[in-house]
Amino acid sequence: MSRVRLDTIRECFEGVIPAIIGTADADGMPNVSYLTQVQYIDPQHIALSYQFFNKTRANILGSRQARLMVISPLTAAQYLLTLEFLRTETSGSLFESMKAKLSGIASQVGMSGVFQLLGSDVYRVTDMVCLQGAQLPAPPPPLNRLAELRNSAERLRECRELDRLFDETLNCLNEKFGIAHAMLLMHEAPARLYTVASRGYAESGVGSEIALGEGVIGVAARERTPIRISHMTSEYGYSRAIRSQTADAQALEIPLPGLAESRSQMAVPILGCSRLMGILYVESPQDLRFTYDDEDALVTLCAQLAMQMHILQEAEPETAQQPPVPAPAPEGAPLLVRHFTGNDSVFFGDDYLIKGVAGAVLWRLVQDYVQQGRSSFSNRELRLDARLRLPDVNDNLEARLVLLARRLAERGAGIAIEKTGRGHFRLDVQRPLQLQEVA
C-alpha cells in the first residue's frame, strides 16, 4: 500500500464506478453499502450524498467513523479512505451542487423522482492508501489545460472592447478547450440574467433571460458556485419553465439557446470581488464531458474575464467626442417603434425587440433622434439620465449596450449602434421613425 494525495485521484469521484462505504455499529457489527455520489471539496475533505436514513446513516451518527473505497475509471486502481464525519449541510453551494449532480445520476439510471438529496455529509479524510493490485497505465491527458489557460488569458487581456472580449472568450473555449456549445449571460440585479453572446447554436438567443435559481445557470448564479452535471436530466432544463408562462409573457420571450439533448452541463459564475457579474455556461451532447480539471480551468478563465470586464467598464476614461457627421435624411417606409412604459419593452411594429434597461436606453435614443435630430451619444450622458433609472454603482451599462447593438444587428430593421470612440457611439438610422408610447 502507498499513500496518495486526495486531489490527484479526483477522477474516482465522477460517479463512473460507484464507491463502497463501510461502517460499524456500537457492537462492532459491520455494514457495507454502495454510494450514489462522492464530491471532492479540497485536499482534506469530501462530501457524501445523504439520501436515506438507513443502517449506514445510523452507524455514522453513532461512531462518526467510516471507510470508503473508490476506484479509478482510468487505471482501475483502488483507494481506501479513512473518514471522520463532521457535519451535514442541507442548503448552500455544496448542497446545491450535489443536488444538481444527483439529478443527472438519477436520470442516467432511471431513478428520477426516487433519488432525493436530504443533505451533504462532510467528512475529513484522515488517511488514504492505494491498495495493491493490477492497474492499467494512466492514459495521456487530452490536452494541457494549464498551457491552454495561459494562452486564453493572454488573448482576453489584449481585448480593448467589451463585445470583442465576449467573442474572444467563446473563441478560446472552442479553439483551446474543444467546447463548441457555450453562452455568456450578464447579471441584471436583482434576480435576472440575460444572454449577450453564444456559440454553437442555430439561434444566438441574445437578449434571452433566465431567473436566478432556474436551472443549472440560475442555481449557479444564486449560489455563486460552479454547477456541473455529467448526465442528461430534465429537472435542470428550461423548456418546462417556458411552457408554464402565459401567451402574453411568451410574446416577450427570446428563446434561450441550447442543445435539444444536453448530456453534460456546467455553469460557472463570473465573480468580481465576490459580486456576481454573469455566468459562463457550457454544454455537450456527450456524457461525462466535463471533469474537475475542466471546472478548475473555467473558474480560472472566468476570473480573468471578470477582471478584464471590470477594467473595460470602469477604469478607462472616455475619449474626446468627434464632431457629428451630418447624415442624409432616411428614406423609405417608416418604422413604427412602440414603447411599453410598464416594463420598458420595445417593439418594431408587432415584433418584440428588447425590454428592461436596454429597452429604456433604446427608447431614449430614438426619442432624441426624432425630437432633437441627435445621432451621437456618450455613455456618460446615459449614466446621468434619470429616465433610465440606472443604479449608482455597477450599472453594467456597457454590457447592456453590447446586448442592444447585437439585438438591433440581428433584427436588421434599419437601426444600428456603431461605436465612434471610447465611451461614444452613433445611432445609425436608415428609415424614418414613427414613435408610439403605450402606457
General description of the model:
With 439 residues, this protein is an alpha+beta fold. Helix content is 31%, strand content 30%. It has helices at 55-63, 93-108, 145-157, 162-177, 215-223, 239-243, 247-251, 292-315, 356-372, 379-384, 397-411; strands spanning 2-3, 19-24, 30-35, 38-42, 45-50, 65-71, 78-89, 119-130, 181-188, 192-199, 209-211, 227-229, 264-272, 275-284, 335-340, 345-348, 351-354, 376-378, 415-421, 424-429, 433-438. Strands 1, 2, 3, 4, 5, 6, 7 and 8 form an eight-stranded antiparallel sheet that branches. It has a six-stranded antiparallel sheet with strand order 11-10-9-14-13-12, sandwiched between helices. Helix 3 (145-157) runs antiparallel to helix 4 and helix 3 packs parallel to helix 8. The longest helix has 24 residues, at 292-315. Residues 239-247 have low confidence and may be disordered.
Tag the structure with descriptive keywords.
439 residues, alpha+beta, eight-stranded antiparallel sheet, 31% helix
The percentage of residues in β strands lies in 25-35%
**Class by helix and strand content?**
alpha+beta
Given as residue ranges, the uncertain stretches (5+ residues, pLDDT < 50) are: 239-247
Tell me the major beta sheet.
8 strands, antiparallel
Quantity of strands, as a count:
21
Mean pLDDT: 88
Helices, by number, come to: 11
Could you give the distance between the termini?
Answer: 75 Å
Q: Helix proportion of residues, in percent?
A: 25-40%
What value does the Rg take, in angstroms? 26 Å
